[in-house]
Amino acid sequence: MLTVCPERLNRSGYALYLKVRDYVNNTADPLVLYKKIRLLCWVLTHPGNIQTKAIHVNATWGKRCDVLLFMSSKPAIELPVVVLNVEEGRDNLWTKTKAAFKYIYKNHLDDADWFLKADDDTYIVVDNLHHFLQDHSSTKPVYFGRKFKAPEKKPYMSGGAGYVLSKAAIIQAVRRGFKDSNKCRNGSGSGEDVELGRCLFNIGVEAGDSRDALGRERFHPFSPEHHLITGMLLKNTWFNKYSFYGVKQGPECCSDYAISFHYISPNMMYVLEYLIYHLKP
């Protein structure tokens, strides 16, 4: 039987059903999947967001990761912060992302099979990520997320929606990509997500398709209402222009097994926790 936990958005009568348990067979039992699929989650943050955002990730979805790390430039006693020697700022996000992956490769490569990057205002339904990854091998160089297309048509995954790399992808990125400036840009870049996409494309890491069997997206770069309520995402924007598979709004926007949403306030993180994991239909 399916246990369905709804988030109801009454403004247009839509409902987003986030399914987090499926006991059709034992392999889909969350406890079995947690043992089978080891997940490291790292969160891109900075000192100014530790108290306002990062601690709320730690108190909600982050606790379901096998390993949880916060990448910043200063230590914080409240959280497992990794101090990276990188100047803060949007212009340095690509440098910071490379430093984060290098740290993970050196210190945590054998602690996980899959490696998720998220922002400190991203909400991840970790159970649904496990559910999705059960059909994919971490020994294959691949990564998943909300697929966009760069101006030169190379695919990349939205940074805000989060993306997850296989162990094989991490190994190739650090050993082959980051050491070759012809494949992976040195120094700062445009966006960390665009630069990572170019880097992984150049070293042969596949940009996988994370949509469900009905073509509905699992990773979402905006809050639930922006995807579910038709008209909240305006046409002729960068989102429509760069979305790899086009944009759907309304109930067909989102998979029943949605994995992520972006621009989630701390208060909404606790609301989502309740609606997904505690509210009974």
Overview of this protein structure:
- This protein is α/β, with parallel strands linked by helices.
- It has a single domain, classed as Spore Coat Polysaccharide Biosynthesis Protein SpsA, Chain A, CATH 3.90.550.
- It contains nine helices and 13 strands.
- The strands form four sheets. The chain has a seven-stranded mixed β-sheet with strand order 5-4-3-6-11-8-12. It has a two-stranded antiparallel ribbon with strand order 1-2. It has a two-stranded antiparallel ribbon with strand order 7-13.
- α3 (93-107) packs across α5.
- The protein is globular.
- Glycosyltransferase that generates the core 1 O-glycan Gal-beta1-3GalNAc-alpha1-Ser/Thr (T antigen), which is a precursor for many extended O-glycans in glycoproteins.
List the helices and strands and how they pair.
Blueprint: E1 2-9, E2 14-22, H1 30-36, E3 39-44, H2 50-59, E4 67-72, E5 81-83, H3 93-107, E6 114-119, E7 123-124, H4 126-133, E8 142-145, E9 147-149, E10 155-157, E11 163-166, H5 167-177, H6 192-202, E12 206-207, H7 224-228, H8 238-242, E13 260-261, H9 266-277
Architecture (CATH level 2) name: Alpha-Beta Complex
Radius of gyration, taken over Cα atoms and rounded to an integer in Å = 18 Å
Overall structural domain count: 1
Q: β content, as a range?
A: 15-25%
Number of helices: 9
Shape: globular
Q: Give the proportion of residues in helices.
A: 25-40%
Span of the ends, CA to CA: 14 Å
| Element order: H for helix, E for strand | EEHEHEEHEEHEEEEHHEHHEH
